[in-house]
Specification:
Keywords: NADP, Oxidoreductase, Pantothenate biosynthesis. By secondary structure, the chain is an alpha/beta fold. It is built from twelve helices and 13 strands. The protein is globular. The structure holds NADPH dihydro-nicotinamide-adenine-dinucleotide phosphate and ketopantoate (KPL). NADPH dihydro-nicotinamide-adenine-dinucleotide phosphate (NDP) is lined by residues 14, 16-19, 43-46, 48, 75, 89-92, 94, 97-98, 115-117, 139, 141-145, 271, 284.
């Protein structure tokens, strides 16, 4: 790996809720400032890709609506120049396919930034990617595809918390942070990003499972003592797993994450809840319930609340 290679070509792989949010911001900024030496490319598919090709991608948020036109949009990675920075923004059930598609485009200096939820995404990618720099990351924002070519944001500040690749701890993030600064993307660089990644995982896994189990939005779960108690118990199980793995979570993390849930707009749904409603059994349940149960079993941490909530969800889905 060379030191601090400049970034020019950016690829958003998976231009849905998360990829579309960042893709719209980046393309919009590049469209309006021709002095910026960045080209942003989108990988998308179906009607969404057709709409993006015709009119770019539109991001609707409470404060404003912006549209960004990428340098090109495609469903074939081969059509694109080799990217310097790849945002990986697919759901976990599409991750292996996405990695297979990007591998031929990855060189020693390629930077891969996965924004999926999950505490083990780095490992899931690294097992199939021998070269390149993978920066473990997480993000807080509520977004979804509202219709072809249109992304809607509800809540979250879009802050990317990211840090060093365990394989290249001396990686210099400046080209990435310069790029984020130019794009006005909110971020925080951490030498060790895992406490943040596990804090996000503790929040999202508990709320994903609770929102689906109780069929309530994030705000409704936060306002309901019984649903909040279930989320809290799942958080305690995740906290015990993180501790057993040697990850030091911030003090009072459960209280903090429960308070943060109450700050999301009341009607915000989790992305897991949206998938269960629209795609049924194709969802990220394994990333949450499945992973907690497997890691608990490996580490000797008991996970009875996650087991009962996740089993009930799976039974409900297989009865449909
Ligand atoms: N949405 C949110 O608020 C948040 C989501 N996350 C996490 O971010 C990750 C992404 O979630 P989200 O953005 O909501 O997911 P979406 O389903 O909205 O977006 C993923 C996009 O990737 C596309 N895609 C997948 N595989 C391919 C492929 N091979 N070629 C082209 N396009 C492809 C999908 O297409 P298609 O629709 O056709 O499948 C979809 O448009 C998840 O892990 C999620 O948990 C994290 C924080 C917040
Ligand atoms: C809860 C939320 C919106 C927070 O970022 C999220 O991560 C998700 O729904 O996947």
């Amino acid at each position: 790996m060379d030191e601090a290679k400049k970034i020019h070509n950016i690829c958003i792989y998976g231009t849905g809720g998360i990829g579309g949010y960042f893709g719209a911001k980046i393309a919009h900024t590049c469209n309006h400032d021709q002095t910026l030496a960045y080209d942003c490319f989108f990988v998308a598919r179906g009607d969404h890709l057709q709409a993006i090709r015709q009119k770019g991608i539109t991001l609707i948020s409470e404060e404003k609506t912006i549209t960004g036109v990428p340098a090109a949009a495609t469903d074939h990675m081969d059509d694109l120049p080799d990217p310097d920075l790849i945002f990986v923004c697919v759901k976990s059930y599409d991750l292996d396919g996405a990695v297979k598609a990007i591998v031929p485009k990855i060189h020693e200096n390629t930077i891969i930034l996965p924004l999926l939820n999950g505490a083990d995404i780095y490992e899931r990618i690294r097992k199939n990617v021998a070269t390149g720099v993978i920066l473990p990351a997480c993000v807080y924002v509520g977004t979804h595809i509202q219709g072809p070519g249109v992304i809607f944001q509800s809540g979250g500040d879009g802050k990317i918390l990211f840090g060093a690749d365990p394989k290249y701890e001396s990686f210099d993030p400046q080209p990435v942070t310069d790029f984020f600064d130019a794009m006005q993307i909110n971020y925080q660089w951490r030498t060790d990003p895992y406490p943040d990644i596990w804090s996000k995982y503790l929040f999202i896994a508990a709320f994903a499972l609770a929102t689906v189990f109780f069929n309530k939005t994030i705000g409704e779960v936060a306002a309901d003592p019984k649903a909040t108690q279930t989320a809290r118990e799942i958080m305690k199980e995740i906290q015990a797993i993180a501790t057993a793995k040697g990850v030091e979570l911030p003090e009072h993390i459960i209280t903090k994450q429960l308070a943060m849930a109450a700050q999301f707009p009341y009607d915000t749904k989790t992305s897991y809840q949206r998938d269960v409603a629209s795609k049924g059994r194709v969802n990220e349940g394994d990333l949450y319930g499945g992973t907690i149960l497997r890691q608990g079993a490996e580490l000797g941490v008991s996970t009875p609340v996650t087991r009962s909530v996740y089993s009930a969800i799976q039974d409900r889905l297989s009865a449909k």
